[in-house]
Amino acid sequence: MTSARNGEQALEMVRRNVPDLVLLDMMMSYVLDGLDVRRAMTEDPLLKAVPVIMMTSATVAGGGTARLLRAKISPSRCGCPSLLSQTSSWSA
Predict the structure, then answer these.
(1) What is the pLDDT of residues 49-73, one digit of tens each?
(2) Predicted TM-score (pTM) of this structure
(3) What's domain 7-77's superfamily in CATH?
(4) What is the pLDDT of residue 66?
(5) Cα 50–chain centre separation
(6) Where are the alpha helices (DSSP H) in the chain?
(7) Are the CB atoms for 73 and 85 separated by under 8 Å?
(8) What whole-number distance in Å separates Cα of residue 92 and Cα of residue 69?
(9) Sequence spans of domains, the chain
(10) In the 8-state DSSP scheme, what is residue 54?
(11) Average pLDDT, whole number, for the chain?
């Protein structure tokens, strides 16, 4: 397993050595976020068939941030057949 520090590095790495699976943080920092990386992968003939699991620590329930996330992560926008949402509750 290898990891990238940002979206640009991630694209370079998967283009150099096509993986069997990509775990992709939706909200990576720097120039390209996870959605941009996934979009670029779907446009690349060598990468569009690589399965991607998108992850995020952002909330997906309630509030303005959640509405923005739901709009931005629609399946058609990130090249995924469907999206899974997960919420977690932590108690002391």
Answers:
(1) 998 887 776 655 544 445 545 555 5
(2) 0.68
(3) Response regulator (3.40.50.2300)
(4) 54
(5) 13
(6) 7-16, 34-43, 63-72, 75-78
(7) no
(8) 28
(9) 7-77
(10) E
(11) 74
